[in-house]
Amino acid sequence: MRHVARKRFGQHFLVDTLLIHQIVQAIAPRPGQAMVEIGPGLAALTQPLVERLGRLVVVELDRDLAARLREHPQLELIEVDVLSLDFRDLAARCCAPLAAQRLRVVGNLPYNISTPILFHLMGAADLIADQHFMLQKEVVDRMVARPGSSDYGRLSVMLQWRYAMEQVLFVPPSSFDPPPRVDSAVVRMVPLAQPPRVDPVIFSELVQVAFSQRRKLLRHTLGPWLEARKPLESRFDLQRRAQEVAVQEYVDLAQTVSPA
User: Fold this and answer.
1) Residues 203 and 250: beta-carbon distance below 8 Å
2) Structural element, H or E, at residue 156
3) What is the rounded distance in angstroms from the CA atom of residue 220 to the CA atom of residue 229?
4) Residues 6 or more apart in contact with residue 221 via CB below 8 angstroms
5) Is 31 exposed, middle or buried (0-12, 13-18, 19+ CB in 10 A)?
6) Which class is domain 200-255?
7) Which of 4, 106, 178, 219 could form a disulfide with 238 if both were Cys (CB 3.0 to 4.6 A apart)?
8) Is 11 within 8 Å of 110 (Cβ atoms)?
């Protein structure tokens, strides 16, 4: 039976065969690698991936789609909300039997929860080799944005602290059924081997405060936040707006605020 896309799951199914081939080429799966696919849907990417890998773990919440996937002998189905999945445990469990060093993650992420998924995965970044995701292009633009651009914001800083990222493919609405009202893109995310050491809680709070009022100078937003913790001892310039500050400067500032 034909599956009807469910709005509550943000479902848009990839149907462009040429694009599917290009995405698989970009991912470059190889036999023996441990890989998990988030939201396999109607298995447009799943089938060519598992043909190259030999085995694939898939995470699917939709019961009807899960029932179809369960029949595939080379798939291990995890039928849960991806935001409740322990990726550290999954990486340890999947990589050991295959003698794989780290887990690879792919997926066509639902537009409505794509950002929470990205932040959820950060907790296991040290156990992940790479991530290839299809996302709303607007989100990808923000992920890879450089300081000074209109797209540069909290998402840019929080992800660039931990990953090297690049947009690898543009995906038009016509590539999906039903077609979304926005353009999409495929992004490659590679966790940094030696990310800067910083308290993630303090770093996250600092960046959130900095971008809370983008049009204001940082002395009006970040200044009071800093003074409440300790007098500013660095030469950090508060006479700028949040989008003018590079990722490394935010990291350096968080390190001065963090307890020794």
Assistant:
1) yes
2) helix 154-160
3) 15
4) 209, 210, 212, 213, 242
5) exposed
6) mainly alpha
7) 219
8) yes
Give the CA angle between residues 79, 129, 157 to the nearest 5°.
95
pLDDT of 216 > 90? The answer is yes
Pick the CATH number of 7-191 from 3.40.50.920, 3.30.559.30, 3.40.30.10, 3.40.50.150: 3.40.50.150
Q: What's the distance, CA 190 to chain centroid?
A: 10
Domain ranges of the chain: 7-191, 200-255
Q: 81 near 105, Cβ under 8 Å? A: no
Strands 184-191 and 128-136: antiparallel
Q: What is the DSSP letter of 69?
A: H
pLDDT band at 111 (very low <50, low <70, confident <90, very high): confident
How is the chain split among helix, strand and coil, in percent rounded to 5?
45, 20, 40
Equal fold, 7-191 vs 200-255: no
Which residue in the block uniquely carries the two structure tokens 């993630």?
200
CA distance 86 to 218: 36
- pLDDT of res. 211: 98
Token pair listed for 192? 């940094």
Assess whether pLDDT exceeds 90 at residue 125. Answer: yes
- Rounded distance between C-alpha atoms, residue 137 and residue 185, angstroms: 5
Please name the residues in contact with 193: beta carbons below 8 A apart, sequence gap of 6 or more. Answer: none
Angle at 258 between CA 253 and CA 259, to 5 degrees: 145
Q: Is 32 exposed, middle or buried (0-12, 13-18, 19+ CB in 10 A)?
A: exposed
The model's confidence at residue 232, banded by pLDDT at 50, 70 and 90, is low
Rounded distance, CA 28 to CA 81, Å? Answer: 27
